[in-house]
Each structure stands twice: as structure tokens, then as C-alpha cells.
Design a protein that fits this description.
mainly alpha; 263 residues
């Protein structure tokens, strides 16, 4: 399923590279600028700069532009997959439509991950000397739960856009998808991490494409899961069969890449 999601994501990017590059540049400006400022201030040797500038700027980026702009990117990616067409305007519409829910979902995810990370450190550092088995056991448990939460967050944001439901409902659906599809969830996380590394190491074009590529890949993975569960439930079986046979995002090959005008 991950292979099909990657294939769909590749052809979505191939077909809509210009608008996705523009959207990715907007994502980079709105998200990376405050993040870069915050991180540089956090790395300062001056404690006052770290506390008064670095910490607020970093928290602002995590809580406001990152979830809100990202959910706009996911809305745009959904439109490109569903209609085979779309515009950057869809990104701003998605930001407007889901801003408050995206903020709450991002804030909740950040708080939970921070608490679990601190718990993992605390149990290992404070309890290891007196009750090592309990301390390390609780620390490992906290780390595993943190990993599960991190895997859930992309699917929760995708569910928020796809289902247009509340924050809790989106989190529940995201968690269920991870539990039922752990291989896909881990594979998606690895792909997103690889994209982040390549974007940092590659020329500026790849850097500004990261937000778009991540949104398209998450949306493609969610789309594959949607089709999987619709087949299982037997809903729209004939329609789904026809879509699978005619879906140009999934039925193109290397020849279409070399000679797109012959498609």
C-alpha cells in the first residue's frame, strides 16, 4: 500500500509541480522563518535571548503557522487528488476552514509529545537508581507511546481534512488507522523523515518543496486507506474497481514520465 501511495504522490507532484512549488514556498516562508528565528535564538549563549526570544518564537511556530499552514496544504493536496485539478487558493481556503481545529490538534499533539518525552527522561533518570526495573520499564513505555502519538498525528490531520470532523474524532480515527496499518504508518514516517533530510541537504528547490511533498504523500496514503476500507465494507465496489482501472495517478509508468505528451 505504501508503494501505491508513493506512486500516487509522485504523479500528483509531477502533474502539479508549479503550483505545489509555489504553495511550498508559501509554507516555507510562513513556517520556516519563525522556526529558524526561534531555533537560532535557542542556540544563543545568552540565557535571556533563549528565554525571551527563542522559546516564544519556537512555541509560536509549533502552535500556529505549522499546523494551520500544513492543514491548508493537506486541503490543497486532497483537491488535487480528488479532482485532478486545483489551485493555490485551495491552500488558503483550507487554512481558513480548519485553522481553529488545526491549532487545537497541533497544540494537543505538542503537549502530549512533550509530556511523554519528559516522562521518558524522568523515569530513567530519577527511578533508575532506586528501582531500575520500574524506572526503565516506564521510560520505555513512555517512549513507545510517544512514537505511537507521532505516527498518529499525520493521519489525524489528514482525517481532519477528509472527514471535516472535530479534533477528538480526528485523533481517534488517526489512532485506529495506525493500529490497523502499522507497517504503512511506520513506512510513511520513514518517508517523511527522508524527505526532511533530503530537503535540508538539497538545493533550495527541494527545501521549498518539502511542505508540498509531505502533504501530498500523507494525503495519498490516506486515500489508499480510504479505498481499502471501502472495498472491505463493499461500498461502491464497482465504482472503486473502475476508479482503480482508470486512475491515471496509479496507472502510469516510466514511458509516461519520458513521453508525457503520448499519454
Amino acid at each position: 500500500m505504501l508503494t501505491r501511495a508513493l506512486k500516487m504522490a509522485f504523479w500528483v507532484l509531477y502533474d502539479h509541480l508549479g503550483k505545489l512549488l509555489l504553495a511550498g514556498m508559501i509554507w516555507g516562508i510562513l513556517v520556516v522563518t519563525p522556526a529558524a528565528f526561534g531555533i537560532s535564538a535557542l542556540l544563543s549563549s545568552d540565557p535571556g535571548v533563549r528565554m525571551l526570544m527563542g522559546l516564544p518564537a519556537t512555541l509560536f511556530c509549533i502552535l500556529v503557522p505549522l499546523p494551520i499552514v500544513s492543514v491548508g496544504m493537506l486541503h490543497m493536496a486532497r483537491e488535487l487528488i480528488d479532482t485532478r485539478d486545483g489551485s493555490v487558493r485551495a491552500m488558503f481556503f483550507g487554512m481558513h476552514l480548519y485553522a481553529w481545529r488545526a491549532f487545537r490538534l497541533g497544540a494537543l499533539g505538542a503537549v502530549v509529545l512533550t509530556a511523554l518525552t519528559f516522562s521518558a527522561w524522568y523515569y530513567a533518570a530519577q527511578l533508575a537508581a532506586s528501582v531500575p526495573l520500574l524506572g526503565y520499564g516506564l521510560s520505555i513505555l513512555a517512549l513507545w507511546v510517544a512514537v505511537f502519538v507521532a505516527l498518529t498525528i499525520p493521519f489525524a490531520f489528514a482525517a481532519l481534512v477528509q472527514k471535516r470532523e472535530g479534533v477528538i474524532a480526528s485523533i481517534k480515527l488517526g489512532a485506529l488507522l495506525v493500529l490497523d496499518n502499522p507497517v504503512l504508518a511506520v513506512g510513511l514516517a520513514i518517508q517523511l523523515a527522508a524527505l526532511a533530510l533530503v530537503s535540508l541537504a538539497a538545493p533550495p528547490v527541494m527545501f521549498f518543496l518539502f511542505g508540498s511533498m509531505a502533504a501530498v504523500l500523507i494525503s495519498s496514503a490516506y486515500e489508499m486507506l480510504s479505498r481499502k476500507y471501502e472495498r472491505i465494507r463493499g461500498e461502491r465496489s464497482e465504482t472503486l474497481k473502475e476508479e482503480a482501472e482508470t486512475d491515471d495517478y496509479l496507472n502510469r509508468g516510466f514511458r509516461d514520465f519520458l513521453f508525457p505528451w503520448k499519454g
